[in-house]
From TrEMBL, chains A, B, C, D:
Pathway(s) served: Amino-acid degradation; L-valine degradation
Uppermost EC category: oxidoreductase
Active site: 211
Record protein name field: 3-hydroxyisobutyrate dehydrogenase
One GO BP: L-valine catabolic process
Domain 3-hydroxyisobutyrate dehydrogenase-like NAD-binding: 205-332
Organism for this UniProt entry: Blyttiomyces helicus
Top-level taxon: Eukaryota
Family: Belongs to the HIBADH-related family. 3-hydroxyisobutyrate dehydrogenase subfamily.
The enzyme's E.C. designation: 1.1.1.31
Alphabetized Gene3D superfamilies for the sequence: N-(1-d-carboxylethyl)-l-norvaline Dehydrogenase, domain 2, NAD(P)-binding Rossmann-like Domain
Reactions listed under catalytic activity: 3-hydroxy-2-methylpropanoate + NAD(+) = 2-methyl-3-oxopropanoate + NADH + H(+)
Start and end residues of each 6-phosphogluconate dehydrogenase NADP-binding domain: 35-202
Length: 341, 341, 341, 341
């Protein structure tokens, strides 16, 4: 136990710095490895964990412990991990907490975060670093951070943007809410193995706030871009020409210049491949629901935000759209038929 | 310089026809000057006309004829014009048509365009070049272009963006709908004295289509930006930090990165000076009304566009907002109080 | 000709009153029949014309002249008319105008009304009574009424509500805009054979205004009713119970108490027969477009009206909904699946 | 204690029936009075409590215990109660629980309900009847009912409609969610002294569901009515005539036929007295927020509901509207100016 807490303090050193200190601790105990736990090996979590393992650990200094509600996911991860840093499977989240110094979680919804952290926080030691990369409601993020504080654990909310491609490529953006600037500096080295942009957004919960604000705005501008392109095309304009005019004018936005929803305007975006891949209508619907929830709690009037949320809910439930990219809202509103004319 | 203006005068030759006739007139009289008419010397038209006069004409090769519904405007223009290229006032639009080879019009609404062009087209000669820079409904733009065609005049719709600052600085963007690519090339030299970007948008009417599409998208994204900033601030985020995160993410748009509606986030934008100057709520309301009209005619579903239109109508009528920049929608929705917290 | 104009003045007597005067005119000339023309024998016009013929005319005092763009419709009408009041087919609208004293028109859109009335008004005699029952934009209704005034004809706009069932049963509501109260009294007797409620709404155009106002409100309340029922059901309430509570409370509206959109709540409404019959999504979309047009012209902020318009446009274009009743918006928004749970 | 539980079973008899049984119990113990507690003597609670006291109790058979966060409210109640049934003030909600058999609560928000019921349920005896008439979110209503179940108390949610006038007149409508039909029958006699319509809406939480569904629909239809009236008036129609046409047509709703928002159309409604009295914009905003919350939890798409919520939030915050009736939305959207024309 003593030993374990000693390790904990060394484990909080950045992975890539303080080599002297680390070597000191290594010299005093062969067991002085940093033990990283990862809970949630889904679409996003799996490739994130793999990047963290392969880029951020080495056999001599790290151990890696994984857990997922589906044991098959853990087994697959162990198999794919190969013979580098040792990877073991924990039978429960409590076991992860007992064995790891740094724990990353990637879960679908607030209710899962509550359940998992109840398990983790029943067993964590003081000073454990907890990084929740789930996208959840701000209220839950703040509440769970409060639980962690009571256990003297250091928790940050660090939701991501970039989707599964970004998770695989290790190019995610992390939006981090942390109790102190020092805490942000402490988690940053771990996140850098999974993402290329690590942004400090303020206190706990603000990571979630930043993410849902960005995604709400994205959700609205995409519908707005779709309506605008559709209107212009129906009035007789060539969509590429219209996009090029808008993209050098005041209507310009990411949804027109980087992710245009009209088939044929841009290459390499979901609209060019029948809206396959990308950021699904269901996920956008979920994220906008989080924005609506935050707006309701904070009594913020989000007229367009609420409207867009309802539109994505209807879109996601329309037959054939549940698994499409959210830019398929262009087709849903009657756009494509006209584009082909 | 000589060469340059020589080119200009040749460029002002009537476009496709009557070369022989013109050569005759050139040989018989030193008076073979290009005569430019300008109708509508309002907030926008006045500085545009001044730029066209001072940058695009010289005494030896041009005459300039102006007309405005308010004679005082014309008188003021003559006084300010000075002793360069001769400027005279026409008593009626019919007189402008009789005397000018190239005519630019800048009028408030479609009904004025109809009235003025009825007057002009009753007196124009064949081949007269007509440039309407008013922002009006597409249906009127197409119809009036049809009238011009019947008179063998060459008409383009060329609405602008850039506001009065752009009009004064000569940095407007012109969105041009023209009957042929050649016609576009023919009007471009004139427009270049008043703007820095001259975009060909297709056939007659498409200049208007491009403008209302851009402005509809702008109108929606501004409200969306205001809602998003307000939400984030109420949830505890610093507005500058939130803007910086959004501006490097997928929510990015002109309304967040160039014209942020939250006081204190950016310098030199209307939100930093209590929403003075800029693009007024009434003008945005008017432009969105043109978009709604086009959408209704073309049976395009613009759910957010229609919503935003109604919001700007209500905003423009709220006491104290009628003369503010359209980004004051942030304050109107209750944003400013929170920003000050 | 003299004779004809004599007839005209007698024809303007209400059909069911002034019997003495009528008998006088009948005694002076066997030819003194009232000649009724009907243009537009579509879904609505056909049964309306049949009611006017069978209930409002008799062989000794009337003639009936029909015209439709499709000759087959006229032929079918003549066949079905039988051997009572003589029915003849006019080859053109001009012929209708030449031969009839009272003319009813029932056409799809404003552009058809313009075209037909150009034809009619080129040939009508002074004092001819013109009743346009088409649902069209207010601007066209007023303009065409102006044309009629120039020809000394008496024109009213008299759009209907009640749908094809009401047209067949003769129970339509007519909303009448007329130049004078006397003109309203003059057309009322004819309308009473086709409808049970004849409402004077003011000057020309106001019949259209009343209709689009009612239908805009109906369109919004139907969506609102659908959202509310859906929300309550998803929260666990029995839809019949919820409807009964609302219908005795302040949320009550025609869309909940007379035309509830949830299958199984009421008998005999479209929702109880998979949304067959009733008032189609396309027609609702069209009527709301007229409201949007009027709002744009009058600078009225209709935030919910514009939103509902866009929703019906999208609904009407969704595969399988184009021919359904407009209350199918409940199913479209994801309602039915939950109702079955 | 025994004695107390004996009383409890007698207390569960309806107040006005089973007189024989009651007299039996009265004969066995002079102390066998029904003890009614009331927590929350605000705008609504005060007159409700007064009605329950004066209509539903008598000195020989009842005691009345009150508590409010502001002691002055309790003192005023005792003073106004007079010399009939004895009224005493409890120093805490815990004391109310200890002393009362039936407890009614009327509190502003869910957080107050949570706090008060934590206090009450720490001290209630088995079988205590708990009636919460607060309008709160469904999730809280269900959760608190669960706490009561664990204590073997019988709890119902019974939010009201009718406002302060209904509270004073004792004509409220109660929408009751109860664990069983029997429980509903048990609380009904108490509610009948405070209201005229007592509706069973199903299980716990459904009282809240029914109320927020009704009020969401009301909130939308009021805006829709305001838009429609405004449109018609701007198009030239007399508002009384327009209302009368709509009220006999399919656009009819409570907001047009009972509570018309246009000044001068109806007598005795808030619009006829500059929107004073009635149901405040802030309360409507709050209730629609509860609907948005329920919709978000149940993943119900409420496009118009969310839009209306945002509109009432903005309305309530506009200077001069915070204390007006919610039908003032007509004036806010620019209606009044036209009405006066």
């Amino acid at each position: 136990m003593n030993c374990r807490f000693g390790l904990r303090s060394s484990q909080s050193l950045p992975l890539t710095t303080n080599l002297a200190a680390r070597q000191r601790s290594l010299s005093t105990a062969a067991a002085a490895k940093t033990r990283i736990g990862f809970v949630g090996l889904g679409q996003m979590g799996y490739p994130m964990a793999l990047n963290l393992l392969t880029r951020g650990t080495q056999p001599s200094t790290h151990e890696f412990i994984v857990h997922d509600a589906f044991p098959a996911a853990s087994a697959r991860f162990v198999a794919e991990a190969g013979t580098g840093t040792p990877v073991s499977v924990a039978a429960s989240v409590g076991e992860v907490a007992e064995r790891a110094d740094v724990i990353v979680t990637m879960l679908p919804e607030g209710k899962h975060v509550r359940a998992v952290y109840k398990g983790l926080l029943g067993a964590v030691g003081k000073g454990t670093v907890l990084i929740d990369s789930s996208t959840i409601d701000v209220a839950t993020a703040k509440e769970v951070a409060g639980w962690a504080r009571e256990k003297d654990a250091l928790m940050v909310d660090a939701p991501v943007s970039g989707g599964t491609p970004g998770a695989k490529a290790g190019t995610l953006t992390f939006m981090v809410g942390s109790p102190t600037p020092e805490a942000f500096e402490k988690v940053k080295p771990y996140l850098q193995h999974m993402g290329k942009s690590i942004v400090h957004c303020g206190l706990n919960g603000n990571g979630q706030v930043a993410k849902i604000c960005n995604n709400m705005l994205l959700g609205i501008t995409m519908i707005a871009a779709a309506e605008t392109m559709n209107l212009g095309m129906r009035m007789g304009m060539d969509p590429k020409l219209l996009a090029s005019i808008i993209n050098t004018s005041s209507g310009r936005c990411w949804s027109t210049d980087t992710y245009n929803p009209v088939p044929g305007v841009m290459e390499g975006v979901p609209s060019s491949r029948d809206y396959e891949g990308g950021f699904g209508t269901t996920l956008m619907s979920k994220d906008m629901g989080l924005a609506v929830s935050a707006a309701n709690d904070s009594k913020s009037a989000i007229l367009l935000g609420g409207t867009a949320h309802a539109m994505y809910m209807m879109l996601a439930r329309t037959e054939g759209y549940g698994k499409k990219d959210f830019s398929s809202v262009f087709k849903w509103m009657g756009g494509e038929k006209d584009a082909k004319k």
